[in-house]
Amino acid sequence: MINYSINTEIRRNIIFFLAVLSTATMGVIKAFFQSLNYEISIPSSFALFGFYFWLFDNYLWRIWILKKIHNIPDLSGEWEGEVTKPNEPHFDIYPVKAIIEQSWTKIQIEVVGKYTRSKLGSISMDLSTPARRCLDYIYSVKPTLEQNGENKRGEGCQSLLVENDKLLTGYYFTSKLRKGKLTLRKI
Q1: In this structure, are residues 173 and 179 in contact, taking their beta carbons and an 8 Å threshold?
Q2: 156: how many CB neighbours lie within 10 A of its CB?
Q3: What does the alpha-carbon distance between residue 170 and residue 136 come to, in Å, rounded to a whole number?
Q4: pLDDT tens-digit series, residues 114-154
């Protein structure tokens, strides 16, 4: 998985909150044991912050009330859909499947069709408008099968609109000067 960027300050605010929470928690724990006259060695606030961050990054960010605060869509799971390519005077439609793995800070997107497989290179999320969240990413394409000796390797750019965390649609273009539309539905 790779880190993804977002265009809001919410991550910085949540990280600050986790730091304050870890410091406060350690203060309470230390005061509790001092009131019992116990002398024990307790981990630092920094260690507790690391635990809180890991917990939030992998699990807590998916809780619906917290998603309302940070607005980052949870796209993890299996998706299916189609690639639509213009081929004058009609369109060719190819079925595809996608697997998306995601945490609060990292993501991996792999789209597999009959002849090609694409994998994420870099990505950013535009969360500035809650009603119109968008993924912009660069990907690499590799063949799944050799076909007619044609080199299917390449790179591409994709922009996907996130609709209700269950539908992704958008347009792409590749280094092979191909373009089309990708539509994915969460299954």
Answers
A1: yes
A2: 20
A3: 10
A4: 888 999 999 999 998 877 899 999 999 888 776 666 667 88
